[in-house]
Amino acid sequence: MSMLVARMQKMKAGNLSGMEKHNKRIFQNHSNPDIDTSLSDQNYDLMNREGKYKDIVTEIIESQKISQRATRKDAVLVSEWIITSDQAFFKNMDPNERDRFFQEATDWFKERYGEQNLAYAHVHLDETTPHMHLGVVPMRDGKLQAKNVFNREELRHLQDELPKHLREKGFEIDRGAEESERKHLSIPEYKKAMESVKELDVERQKKSQEIIKTVSQIDELQSAKSALQDEYEAHKAIVNEFKQRGKGLVETTKKLVEKPPYKAPEVESIFQPEVSDDFLGKNVKMKKEDYSKMIESQNTSLEKHKILTNRFDLVAETLEKANRINYQLSAELEKAKKAIPVQTDDFVSKTEHEKIKRELKISEQRHEQKDFIIQQQQVEIKDLKQIVNQFKMVCIDFIKEKRHQAFDLMSDLAKKLHLVKDVNESIKQDKEREQEKSRHQDDSEMEL
């Protein structure tokens, strides 16, 4: 639920002219960037009194005062109230309901302080948030007495009863936070404070967006790092596989180069018939049957020897040719071992091998660049956190310093910046330090 904003400013004779120019937009140039002059014709006054503020206020005072003495020059002539709420309260509100809101607030002031004492009720619709400047001449019992009309008890009553009245009229609005020692800001101070709140909120949102963007960039870099790591491992596995296959092929080639052991073919022994010494002489005599067997055995052996000889010559020629090819292959393989990894049964070209080496080198460089960027981002995040913490401490000190002057405004600011808990903790620590300091002083005095 939105909170009612009701701020009072004490106006003396010297302030009326400037306030009238502001409320009625009587200026050629203005320093308030929130004023959209193209919408100023939509502003209106619920009291519709004619004349200048000075004349209207003087007429109200003179028509009621019972003393013949002149009004003091430093007297508070008007207690001007700013009545409004936050932007969310007015955002989707129907224009008729918005006008009724200001009319109901004005009616409550009429009933409480007398319609005859309301000098003006000017509604501004040409600024960021709709609001009303309502001027009350603090007359009571024929006297101008601002301190008695708007004392602390009356201010507390107004902060309670005005939002209650508006809720009864159908508006979802609550009172602001209570503070017994609060002081009311002047309109310039109030607007300056509101500008500070806006600037702080914009700065906070900007820093939050920067942090979110930085975290997102880090996540992207981490993803890129994982992808590059996977790619690097894949290339590394391929190279290792090439190396292992190359070793196997070298061993196989070496075995082929080695000369296999050859044995001469064994020939069956020639048939040797039994010979009797009795028949020895110039010619050896043997049986015809034995001679035939011997001749047949010799012919068989010669035939086998001829076949083996032919085969041996063919094998020797083939072996010599294979040895030459193997020696050539071995020499080529030794050269390839130095630069070309092996893929399956074929050699990978030197160009492809160089390409893989370049890709691995680029991948390593990307890893180094990515790690460097991540380190930079971490440093920037650390700096951003320090800035945010410094900004947070500045806000806490600002809220603590100004809370006695404008408690409601500082309370709203603390809520918007989510610093209520931190402010309370800081105040508590300040009190503890003061108590500790006081105890040390008491101890020092006792020692003296």
Automatic annotation (TrEMBL):
Gene3D superfamilies: 3.30.930.30. It comes from the Bacteria. Residues 190-245 form a coiled coil. GO terms for biological process: DNA recombination. CDD domains: MobM_relaxase. InterPro entries: Mob_Pre (IPR001668). Residues 425-448 are annotated as: Disordered. One of its GO terms (molecular function) is DNA binding. Keywords: Coiled coil. Belongs to the plasmid mobilization pre family. This is Plasmid recombination enzyme type 2. The gene is pre.
